[in-house]
Design a protein that fits this description.
9 helices, single chain, Rossmann fold, 36% helix
Length: 223
């Protein structure tokens, strides 16, 4: 799947939530729900007003903007130049955005906390995922927390593909190698990556109020 083309096309949507795929049953997630998600992320990362946060795969900055009240500053990175162009419309001296690949970007800065949310599914094999985690660790200060959030859960794949129509679409997309859901990860794959990279990881089950909790999980890493 050409994800860069996919997300460049998404950037043409009229509203911020649709540009970053925050939808359910064809409708955008309500702003109040997104604010609740941002607050939950701040708690998972134990964000404080002195923290510098790195938001990887930040898209148009929709979630970044909601996280800013919980920290001192945010640097966002995304490989879609078109989404970053949207993000730069809300940028400031406290919130800066760069167009770069999550596996390869290099910033001359380390961060107190790191988040990659709703995007790990788009790294479609183990080695790509491991490269992303290694790069996040490279940019994390000693003792930093790293949250990989909203990961499609391989254990619960049929809770997402839960109708004949979805099964059929999954089959057609799989044959064409253009599955727009990306990879469903098993938690043990992320635990294996952490072991190989010499850090501790923890699987976090999502709260029932979270919109995609029936087929996603979160993962917390301590550097």
């Amino acid at each position: 799947m050409n994800w860069k083309h996919f997300w460049d096309r998404q950037a043409l949507a009229s509203k911020g939530a649709k540009q970053v795929g925050r939808i359910m049953a064809g409708k955008e997630l309500e702003p109040q729900l997104m604010l609740a998600i941002a607050k939950h992320i701040s708690e998972q990362l134990q964000l404080t007003e002195t923290d510098n946060l790195l938001d990887v795969c930040c898209g148009n900055g929709y979630l970044s903007q909601m996280l800013l009240p919980y920290c001192q500053s945010i640097v966002g990175v995304d490989f879609s130049e078109k989404l970053i162009a949207q993000a730069n419309k809300i940028g400031s001296n406290k919130m800066i955005f760069y167009a770069a690949d999550a596996k390869e970007f290099g910033l001359n800065q380390s961060f107190d906390k790191v988040v990659l949310y709703f995007s790990f599914q788009y790294f479609e094999d183990y080695e790509s995922g491991k490269k992303v985690l290694a790069n996040l660790l490279k940019h994390a200060a000693p003792g930093a927390l790293i949250l990989i959030g909203d990961i499609c859960d391989k254990r619960k794949i049929w809770r997402y593909y839960n109708s004949p129509k979805k099964w059929w679409n999954w089959l057609k997309q799989s044959i064409k190698q253009k599955n727009d859901m990306g990879k469903f990860w098993h938690p043990r794959e992320l635990l294996q990556m952490c072991a190989a990279l010499g850090v501790k990881g923890e699987v976090l089950e999502q709260a029932v109020w979270q919109p995609y909790a029936h087929y996603r999980f979160d993962f917390l890493i301590v550097k």
